[in-house]
Specification:
This protein is of the alpha/beta class. The chain contains 17 helices and 7 strands. Keywords: DNA-binding, Transcription, Transcription regulation.
Length: 357
Amino acid sequence: MIEKEIINTPDFFEEAINCYTSKDNNFEILSNYEKFGMTQEEMQEYIRPVQEFCKQVNEQFSVVIEEFPKLKAFLKLTDTELQEGSILLIFYRNLLRIEQGIGKFTKEDLAFIHMLNKDQYSEAISDEKVYVKDVTELIQYLETQSLEDAYKMRLISLYMDRLVIKDQIMKLKKVAEDIVQKSYHLVKHIVEEELIRMKEPDYLDEILKDSIRIFMEQGKKFTLIPSICKYNSLGMEGVDNFYIFHVGIYVVNLVKRKNQNKFNDAQLIADLKAISDATRLRMLHMLSMKRMYIQEMAEELKLTPATVSHHINILLTMRYVLLTVDASKSKKVYYELNQEKLEGLSKSILNLTNKYY
């Protein structure tokens, strides 16, 4: 049986960081109201509490971050981070989970090293762990990886300043939590309502059945953490013997609404737009042959993993592909074609003749 743990409050430090880094592109959903069976006014009212929360937090955090220039530099996200998440937040999460160092590796060393063992850093599809003992080894390792140059430099900078960065994160954390706490009343009722729904046994089924397949050994555990700023997204981390889901407080309801209105014209236009790109169309052809990892697709397409992640996230959002996590074996994440989605799109196009002629 899979055990489910629910964290009752969002991580206020992460919320502050996300409000700051997402301020320019967090509410595109306001222009897509028809896909969710809403009027523009209904969508605006629906999103308003989160929008006001993010605005207030960002205004105050933008002042405070000026006192931490080293951290501020890390919060101007690279293209890879826009797809995979801020390395500052990943480093922060690892620091919270690692209790102490091991041998010659300090807690800060391990928090960084764990980042290098995420799927997007690994060229080889294997379970072998990557360890680096100094900056020279890190540079040598990164030279073998087809990562964005700006991202490589960011990893090197973080490694070289990891002790200072850790201390500054902990100082900023206290201030950021106070900032978020002051505005939390705007969304607290929404979070509490979602926490009640999270206890339902089929809470994530609507999302997982259409986008993510997870094959897990018995005894594995899910941890669910509510997310305010990332209100319409589902983030997933694999950590040892459990998976952590950062669940947007609106994401389950929005998916249900979208599924109930899947045959409207706005959805059809969005579906067709997603595959009008030549690269994404080629990716669908590739995935029709076999399931693939990000690195495999990047090599075949001669693109960076960050670029492939950008395209695959669009296809994943529109459910053209399925994300599969095999936690029982290699613990790798791979993608495969969602044939049901293509069949549904074909039917929608054919229905045009019945609807209008």
